[in-house]
Design a protein that fits this description.
two-stranded antiparallel sheet; three-stranded antiparallel beta sheet
Length: about 170
């Protein structure tokens, strides 16, 4: 008989609407503001955002497309950009760039590591221990509160099983 020890890695952090407003108000740059908005709305993973290319963002169709093989679960997915704010932020992020270029850049270089920028933003907003991943859980909770079905939320954020989602 196989016994499994109880996992003690259940993540718990969420971002309140007030905290989100503080983060937005103190966000120092376009790329970080756009990443914040994307993760808050769709629960995007850091790696998905850092690897996002201009050709995956269709501003006319208002979609962000993640290609198969580029996500944690290796499955592609597409989300519709519902937020006018996010649409405008992404418009500025992709402006003048070629399809193969990264969406999130500092100057002309792709953002690779933003831990210090994130830490500084969180300290400025008065929430120093906030993880970027907390935006992922927050997006799921907000979508659920808005009446979006669990299966749809799982598709949007890329969860494969209900147990991981929960």
């Amino acid at each position: 008989m196989l016994f499994r020890s109880k996992e003690n890695n259940v993540r718990q952090g969420f971002v309140t609407p007030e905290q989100y407003a503080d983060l937005v108000a103190r966000c120092p740059g376009l790329w970080l503001r756009a990443m914040l908005e994307t993760a808050y709305n769709y629960g995007s993973r850091v790696s998905e955002l850092l690897n996002l290319r201009v050709g995956q963002v269709d501003l006319v169709a208002r979609t962000i497309r993640l290609e198969p093989g580029t996500t944690k679960n290796q499955e592609g997915r597409e989300v519709t950009i519902e937020s006018g704010t996010l649409l405008q932020l992404l418009l500025h992020c992709v402006e003048g760039k070629r399809p193969e270029e990264h969406v999130f850049t500092r100057g002309h270089k792709p953002v690779r590591d933003f831990r210090k920028a994130w830490e500084n933003l969180c300290v400025a907003a008065g929430i120093p221990n906030l993880l970027f991943h907390d935006l992922r859980r927050t997006a799921a909770r907000n979508l659920r509160a808005a009446g979006v079905a669990e299966e749809i939320i799982m598709r949007i954020a890329g969860w494969k099983t209900s147990s991981v989602f929960k």
